[in-house]
Amino acid sequence: MYSLDVDPSSARGEEDAPGCRREPLRFQFTGLSVWLSIDDDDDFSRAIDYMSSSHGIFRIPENHVTAIYGMDLEENLARQKFDIVRKEFGRWEDTLRPVGVIVDVEIAGRNGGLMDMAWSEITYSSSTTHERMLDRLHEIFYDGTCVRQGPWKPHCSLAYDNPEDPALTLHATVDFIAKETPSLLTKTRTVTGMSLWRTEGTMEEW
């Protein structure tokens, strides 16, 4: 079932904030985003909870794979376009196969970087079908005015942190997944839904 949700704060509880011991992520997100929901056997939720509580960072509101982000659209127009998506896409026609874990840092303006952020993610393989559906989403929302730069490897982020001296490490992430949530690297995921979110400002402000 597809949904329309432009209030990500409803996806997390107020209890998430007290566990944040590090400086909250400073990066300023912009606009509206389309997220793909994937089937979860609670391993994603457990991994995201672990990353937040063990490293003292603000919790990502909900596990998701981003399809589009940073859309500068008036909200009512975005809702109208999302209604078109909801009618046209009966289901996401491809599955997501995990291919690895990435923990990295990006600095805006350095080596092509667009944002100042550290992050950890589960990376998935892409496909001709996945790319075709992303192309169609962009066509609907941008009316051909913005050419999508692809391919874009799908991923599900587990945590974000500021880029200076980040708490996230590849060893800790892989170790937890291997011991506690192995399905994240062994199970092919199905896209179960799609939603429209307002992702404006810092993640704490969502």
| Beta strand count | 7
Radius of gyration: 17 Å
Count every helix, treating DSSP H or I runs of 4 or more residues as helices: 5
The low-confidence runs, each spanning 5 or more residues with pLDDT under 50, are 4-18
Derived structural class = alpha+beta
End-to-end separation: 24 Å
Task: Give helix and strand order, one letter per element, not per position.
Answer: EHEHEEEHEHHE
Beta-strand level of the residues, as a percent range? 15-25%
The largest β sheet comes out as: 4 strands, antiparallel
Name the strands of the widest sheet in spatial order: 2-1-7-3
**What gross morphology would you assign?**
globular
Q: Report the mean per-residue pLDDT as an integer.
A: 87
Q: Please give the share of residues in helix.
A: 25-40%
Task: Summarize the structure in words.
It is built from five helices and seven strands. 28% of the residues lie in helices and 24% in strands. The chain is globular, with a radius of gyration of 17 Å. The chain has a four-stranded antiparallel β-sheet, with helices on both faces. It has a three-stranded antiparallel β-sheet with strand order 4-5-6. The chain has helices spanning 43-55, 75-88, 128-142, 170-180, 183-186, and strands at residues 32-38, 65-71, 95-96, 98-106, 117-124, 155-161, 189-198. With 206 residues, it is an alpha+beta fold. Helix 1 packs across helix 4.
